[in-house]
Give the backbone structure.
Amino acid sequence: MIRGLHGLFYTSEPAAMRVFIRDKLKLPYTDVGNGWLIFDLPEGDIGVHPIDEKGQPPSGTHDVSFYCDDIHGTVAELRGRGIRFDRDIEDHGYGFVTYFTMPGGVSVQLYEPKYRKRASRPKVAARPNRRRATAKRPKIAARDRRH
């Protein structure tokens, strides 16, 4: 069963990018030795986008974005850590978007989604067990159940 996504950034400055992600973005990480840091994210998602009528970006292109709950607050916090943003915040329909560049010239999108993410929904408190006025169903033996 898939339980996560491992994303990769390719850069000409891997040590500087690892420091940037560790110290500027403050992502938790696992040090797996020899300067390799594997960064953890509290949640993630995958979107599938079509190419445009000009065939751009080329089919097979991958892209990475970071998202947040408050883009203005997050941008202010990241600017306080020395991150420079490449664009002003814009409304792209699906969310409020800006970009910053990490070491090695890797441009990354930061956005605040306008849609509600399933993983972000608050947990519903368990309801007390209530008897229903319905007919009892026969018990099915474990070997007869379909999965």
About this structure: The beta strands are 29-33, 36-39, 65-67, 90-91, 95-102, 106-113. The longest strand covers residues 95-102.
